[in-house]
């Protein structure tokens, strides 16, 4: 990592600290307070994501036996990985000083760490220098879009909404997810309305149309209003991002990939997002996981899974939802079901419309009986239905499924009919939706993947 690094003397060991890295500073504070187990755990999490400063610190702690058992072989391995990933100056002669005294087992342990967390190993898995390009694939593109309704005509302000949605092979958009809405969330509903009524050219892979997930933006420009990126809030964010603050890196990076007005360019925006992910920002980690997942067809050795776990642990609800879906993907056992349920419970309290919708769908209509929870699905569905977003057929489908799961088939039929009406207006294929309506009319709940394309 090409970052400025300073050293701090702590007891008998020097620990490196990268500038303005919130999680790193938390680990460093734990170390200074002699909370070695917590510090070691945090350094380990960042070390696995390729942060060479954390790899160095973890290696030193393992050599000293701080925060857990002393492990010279693993300690040397992490020091070697740190040097390989850009912290050679910090490592200095530490490895040479102990290398000759290592046993065969310790040498093997060190080699195993380097094989898994050295630069080439991390690069091949999309953790270091991730390749987000996909040869032979042409991404989806918006071909036409209606003008959005301005959400607050009484208080004109410039706004920007950034999101992602699925574009089918037929060019029809669905399943919108809001990543950013400024200056407040009120703009999100208007953006979703415009996106769902837009038309797209689908992505192609070797000339064949394919379904894909794409990033979209919606600007709200008011003549005479202060440009969004001129406000004090965003000027401060820009400065903080330049200083390495992870939350600011995510905000500015995401905006730069979507809005040329910020003046950084998409390439710099992407780099800021990658740096934010490595610096511990859960939203950036989820963003990077999603980008890597979208190019897996071109880079089978890479996977976004390495980024999902820390994003979920950091509280990102969309990452928690994605991890839960992964756990439920193939005949889950009892332990996997417990873990998935815990992740969904955490995700359900999120303000994310996208996350709530998917959690309701799983708890109401999952084919896995042990996962279904009609009462909780109903509670979340009520919050979903009370929101500002009224243009998404899938929202009404989720609410209908929750009602059916709870035995309220009259409400299920009404909500499903609304979903069908809106889906037909958008030109969707409604065959599966019609089948669900028929089930509800016959007093039968429906189980399956509610949002399958």
Percent of residues in helices comes to 40-55%
CATH architectural label of the largest domain: 2-Layer Sandwich
CATH topology of the largest domain: TolA/TonB C-terminal domain
Give average pLDDT, whole number.
Answer: 90
Folded structure, characterized:
This protein has 453 residues and is of the alpha+beta class. The chain folds into 3 domains: 5-124, Serine Threonine Protein Phosphatase 5, Tetratricopeptide repeat (Alpha Horseshoe), CATH 1.25.40.10; 144-294, TonB (TolA/TonB C-terminal domain, 2-Layer Sandwich); 351-441. 54% of the residues lie in helices and 12% in strands. It is built from 20 helices and 10 strands. It has helices at residues 22-32, 36-47, 52-64, 72-91, 94-99, 104-117, 119-124, 186-196, 232-242, 246-258, 266-278, 282-294, 305-313, 317-327, 334-348, 353-365, 374-385, 393-405, 409-425, 431-441; strands at 5-10, 13-18, 137-138, 141-144, 159-167, 173-182, 199-201, 203-205, 208-210, 212-220. It is globular.
List the helices and strands and how they pair.
Layout: E1 5-10, E2 13-18, H1 22-32, H2 36-47, H3 52-64, H4 72-91, H5 94-99, H6 104-117, H7 119-124, E3 137-138, E4 141-144, E5 159-167, E6 173-182, H8 186-196, E7 199-201, E8 203-205, E9 208-210, E10 212-220, H9 232-242, H10 246-258, H11 266-278, H12 282-294, H13 305-313, H14 317-327, H15 334-348, H16 353-365, H17 374-385, H18 393-405, H19 409-425, H20 431-441
Antiparallel strand pairs: 1-2, 3-8, 4-7, 5-6, 5-10, 8-9
């Amino acid at each position: 990592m090409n970052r400025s690094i300073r050293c701090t003397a702590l007891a008998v060991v020097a620990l490196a600290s990268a500038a303005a890295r919130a999680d790193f500073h938390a680990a460093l504070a734990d170390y200074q307070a002699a909370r070695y187990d917590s510090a070691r755990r945090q350094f380990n999490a960042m070390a696995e994501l390729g942060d060479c400063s954390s790899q160095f610190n973890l290696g030193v702690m393992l050599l000293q036996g701080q925060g857990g058992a002393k492990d010279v072989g693993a300690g040397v391995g992490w020091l070697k990985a740190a040097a390989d990933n850009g912290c050679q100056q910090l490592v200095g002669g530490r490895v040479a000083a102990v290398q000759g005294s290592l046993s065969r087992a310790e040498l093997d342990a060190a080699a195993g760490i380097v094989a898994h967390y050295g630069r080439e190993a991390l690069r091949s898995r999309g953790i270091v220098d991730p390749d987000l390009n996909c040869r032979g694939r042409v991404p989806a593109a918006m071909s036409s879009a209606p003008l959005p309704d301005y959400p607050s005509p009484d208080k004109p302000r410039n706004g920007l909404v950034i999101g992602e949605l699925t574009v089918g092979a037929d060019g029809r958009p669905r399943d919108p997810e809001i990543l950013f809405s400024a200056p407040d969330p009120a703009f999100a509903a208007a953006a979703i309305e415009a996106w769902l009524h837009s038309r797209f050219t689908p992505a192609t892979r070797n000339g064949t149309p394919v379904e894909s997930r794409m990033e979209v933006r919606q600007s709200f420009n008011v003549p005479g209003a202060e440009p969004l990126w001129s406000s004090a809030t965003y000027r401060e964010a820009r400065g903080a991002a330049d200083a390495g603050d992870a939350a600011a890196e995510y905000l500015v990076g995401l905006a730069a990939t979507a809005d040329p007005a910020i003046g950084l360019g998409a390439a710099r925006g992407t780099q800021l997002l990658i740096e934010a992910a490595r610096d511990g920002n859960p939203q950036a980690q989820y963003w990077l996981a999603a980008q890597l997942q979208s190019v897996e067809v071109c880079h089978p050795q890479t996977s976004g899974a390495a980024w999902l776990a820390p994003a979920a642990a950091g509280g990102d609800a969309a990452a928690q939802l994605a991890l839960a879906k992964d756990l439920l993907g193939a005949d889950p056992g009892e332990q996997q079901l417990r873990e998935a349920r815990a992740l969904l419970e955490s995700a359900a309290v999120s303000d994310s419309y996208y996350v709530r919708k998917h959690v309701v769908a799983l708890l109401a209509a999952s084919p896995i009986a042990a996962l279904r929870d009609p009462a909780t699905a109903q509670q979340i569905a009520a919050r979903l239905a009370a929101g500002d977003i009224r243009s998404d057929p899938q929202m009404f489908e989720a609410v209908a499924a929750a009602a059916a799961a709870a035995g309220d088939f009259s409400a299920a039929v009404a909500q499903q009919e609304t979903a069908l009406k809106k889906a037909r207006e958008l030109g969707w294929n409604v065959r599966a939706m019609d089948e669900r309506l028929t089930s509800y009319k016959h007093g039968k709940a429906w189980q399956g993947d509610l949002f399958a394309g």
